[in-house]
């Protein structure tokens, strides 16, 4: 026992002393990156901006107390140029007393000037690096990415939190890094990513003080390696329908004058989209079928929803609205010659042989594709009242 | 002198044994009474010399026959000696037929007709007589009789039966063992009255001559287990057994293990419950703690109340206990490992909060955690030892100075104080204190390895603990039974507590020969309606 125990103790102690503590890093020695901005400099280099969280200002408001000034952000932007992202990181590290700690990065914001040029090659870093998480969101902006990071938020302490929360609402498209890279690499599918901008938080405010807010406005569309155009919010909704990523949204339809006029708003509860592609007389026909459940939330018209027939009428209006939106964003795809919808992908899934024939210059063939869409709306709930409020 | 690692003969302390043997040999010269009053009395006086608490009461019976009563003041009931022996002897000896009898019959007559004590016997072995006197009995020597009458007059001060301090319950009996062995056996006997409940007595301890009693149910207990236990007990040759802990360490299977392989309890209902499963209880004189063996880890994690409360709350309580037991082991080390190696594993906002609270702390997480854990363990130990009047001082110092002031001074982070106090609470959920101590101690190696090797190290140590646990045995029963080796039918009393009507079988580990506890179909049903 004695000898064996001594040897065992020696092995444990030696292995702890020699192999232990490798890669040890205290929390107060790391600079936690919460968002990254990437821009292109005029000289053609890469400018990387990091939004670091300053822990001192995040929690523990009780410690100082006396300053009286409310810190409106816990973030701090630091940026540096470099030839590659890693190079820029190294340059930032020179300016920083703490180690850059990347796993908590929530968002990667890519400036338009860079995205129009070259995006794909940058993605190598984010896949290769041991510290990045594939769950971060990818965003485009027309401004410089650093401006987005520099935004001082009102609700959350950090811009990255705002971006994350806005993404989670599901109203706009959200693309995570792994999805972004997958869309890049897939055949018959172009990538896209939401666009984020700083906008005034009030519309036509009389106040001189300008309050800003971060807002997602549509998506940026890629073709191959480059950003080629933008979709507005409406078209983005159509894109979400097409991609079967519709989570929630409000659809408002106008009731024609002959039926009393007014508007009805409904909210999407469930949505499912199927894309089928046929080859008819050497011409490709895309058939999109949408089935969705919509609950009515507002009825400003004279239509009484008590009636099943009238509900069916409202359903048909909603169907038409959805079909229009989808058609609109498919037109954009044809206009940009970029298959961000993934029609090619759908062909490949249905018949790989057909895809083999069409693969060549697929994006340019998109304009010739015949497009059909049909929506099936099911109104399930009409709310707490049956009749619309009316004056007798 | 060459250094020898083992078997060095330079220093031998065990000469004592020889001395004891020589002493015994000398005393063995005369082992029985002679019948000659004066020489016998002299013999006792020399044997019991310098025992200030031994009383020799010489009396003169009608006859004239000299007699002496020898007893130990303080252990024998003087009142009983007065009324039942002395009074009877002195008043009765003048009358009736005592004097007519022959000397040999005189003692028998006294035993059968005069002394009104419940337990008497005759013996002529000097050693036995002395043992009897020293354990509180009274010996009566008569002139001309080579026998002594031994009368049981034991009575000493004892604590009253109280609720066990170390194992309180909400629902369940409130009586606990006390230091008196006879009271303790009666507490069990009161619960289990059948003749199959055996209470075998043994004596261990050369000087203490401690009475111990093995309690078991004949027909349920495995006879081989009983033999093994007796063998292990008979092996013991020690000067004294002052507490059950002595015995535990002398008979357990793995003497180097940190985990207790024998359960100790103050609760008679708990012992009764265990012996009904085929386990053996050991009651030891002069301690309120009884031992139960063989036990599994899950016995040590169960409380007697689990069986008294309704089964659904009991089941949830067991989950809670298992979860807290595990967190008592790993929570501080997880904190250290994640904060020094795996910061990416925390949600961002949590990491930022912890980072904020640690911003001013000058120590690495492991040092910080060690300071606080040691302070907590110190507080706990002081809380047990400290004299009652200073109790408040310690709790004020503990709560204010170590808790609040340390955080305000920036020496430790608030998040760590939460971790330490949660662990502190969790470490007190163990129903068996000795098992809780083992887990609390294992926390420290885990913390060290967490600080040097992170989660990988924690996993290594947990694996080592697990390997040790599955290899451990308590009197041949695997420690992790019924999980490893898996016994599916036994699981209904581990992670859940099945209702009583569903636990028809006793655990297989200890009662394979007589497995059924109850009749089939005891689940309450709707009554049959007549007519």
Structure description:
The complex is a heterodimer of chains A (392) and B (531). Chain A has helices spanning 2-19, 85-95, 112-115, 120-128, 145-150, 159-168, 177-185, 233-242, 308-336, 343-350, 352-358, 362-365; strands at 30-40, 46-53, 75-82, 99-101, 107-111, 137-141, 192-200, 212-223, 226-231, 250-254, 263-280, 283-299, 370-379. Chain A folds into 2 domains: 26-231, no CATH class; 245-392, Nutrient germinant receptor protein C, domain 3 (GMP Synthetase, Chain A, domain 3, 2-Layer Sandwich). Chain A is globular. In chain A, strands 1, 2, 3, 4, 5 and 6 form a 6-stranded mixed β-sheet that branches. Chain A is 32% helix and 30% strand. Chain A is an alpha/beta fold. Chain B is elongated and about 100 Å long.
Q: Structural class of the secondary elements of chain B?
A: alpha+beta
Strand percentage of chain A = 25-35%
Number of strands of chain A: 13
Number of strands of chain B: 12
Mean of residue pLDDT values of chain B: 86
- Class based on secondary structure composition and strand pairing of chain A: alpha/beta
Topology of this protein?
The complex is a heterodimer of chains A (392) and B (531).
Chain A: H1 2-19, E1 30-40, E2 46-53, E3 75-82, H2 85-95, E4 99-101, E5 107-111, H3 112-115, H4 120-128, E6 137-141, H5 145-150, H6 159-168, H7 177-185, E7 192-200, E8 212-223, E9 226-231, H8 233-242, E10 250-254, E11 263-280, E12 283-299, H9 308-336, H10 343-350, H11 352-358, H12 362-365, E13 370-379
Parallel strand pairs in A: 1-4, 1-5, 5-6, 12-13
Antiparallel strand pairs in A: 1-2, 2-3, 7-8, 8-9, 10-11, 11-12
Chain B: H1 16-27, H2 37-47, E1 54-61, E2 65-72, H3 78-92, H4 103-114, E3 120-123, H5 126-134, E4 138-142, E5 148-151, H6 181-191, E6 197-204, E7 210-217, H7 223-235, H8 244-251, E8 263-265, H9 268-275, E9 280-284, E10 290-293, H10 297-300, H11 311-340, H12 348-358, H13 365-385, H14 391-408, H15 414-426, H16 433-471, E11 473-474, E12 477-478
Antiparallel strand pairs in B: 1-2, 2-4, 3-5, 4-5, 6-7, 7-9, 8-10, 9-10, 11-12
